[in-house]
Amino acid sequence: MYEYIKGTVTDISPEYIVIETGQIGYQIITGNPFSFSSLEGQETKVYLYQHVREDNISLFGFQTAEERYLFKKLLGVSGIGPKSALAIIAAGDPVPLISAIEAEDDVYLTKFPSVGKKTARQIILDLKGKLADVAADQITVQKATKDISDGLPPALEEAVLALEALGYSTRELKKVLPKLEKEVLTSNDYIKLALQLMTK
Predict the structure, then answer these.
(1) What architecture is domain 65-127?
(2) Highest CATH level, class, for 146-198
(3) Where is this region: Domain III (predicted)?
(4) Contact at 8 Å (CB) between 156 and 134?
(5) Using CB atoms within 10 A of its CB, is residue 166 exposed (0-12), middle (13-18) or buried (19+)?
(6) Would the pLDDT of 117 be above 90?
(7) Are the C-beta atoms of 42 and 152 separated by less than 8 Å?
(8) What confidence score (pLDDT) does residue 143 get?
(9) 28-59 pLDDT, tens per residue?
(10) Nearest partner of 162 among 5, 12, 22, judged by Cα
(11) Contact between 33 and 14 (Cβ < 8 Å)
């Protein structure tokens, strides 16, 4: 099992980043790849989780150990896979998520992609009272259909692509797009604002 990787960020896409170390480029899936934009070309440390399936081995990356811890806790919930777990921790701050779990607020939890009422109840059942030790650090994270991303500023288009990669639907994205278009932000900040609007 890998603990972390330290290397140079050489590529950023809507679904993953590439970190080169020892002349090998590692594809690392992250919730919000564009949170690494300011680090492109620089050496950085990324905490890793290796996910193994019969037909695939994937590396998931996190900027903090706390973010990875929360991801692993969510993976332990029946019905939650890696993609859903990434989308859940993508909101930028674990406090509202932990508060919702502690308050048994399943309505808040069902706002995330692939989380229905049954899965939300399972999250509460499995994790209530078990996340108090997650530090309240800022957790940053994350393809949209071509018709809604066409004509958008590059940073906003990248953000929309990353949000679709997390599983948000065209309908959900169209709802917040007018508010996003009023702002001039980086891809990372567009993603954070969109996630805040969609989880209100």
Answers:
(1) Orthogonal Bundle (1.10)
(2) mainly alpha
(3) 155-200
(4) no
(5) buried
(6) yes
(7) no
(8) 33
(9) 999 889 888 888 999 999 999 999 988 889 99
(10) 12
(11) yes
* pLDDT score at 137: 38
Indicate the average pLDDT of the chain.
85
Buried/exposed code over 27-63 (b: 16+ C-beta within 10 A; e: otherwise):
ebbbbbbbbbbebeeeebebbbbeeeeeeeeebbbbb
**Which amino acid belongs to residue 11?**
D
| Nearest by Cα to 30 from 40, 41, 18, 15 | 15
Give the whole-angstrom CA distance, residue 176 versus residue 156: 12
Q: 4-62 in CATH: which number?
A: 2.40.50.140
Structure tokens at 57: 């081995």
Predicted pLDDT at 95: 75
The ranges assigned to domains in the chain are: 4-62, 65-127, 146-198
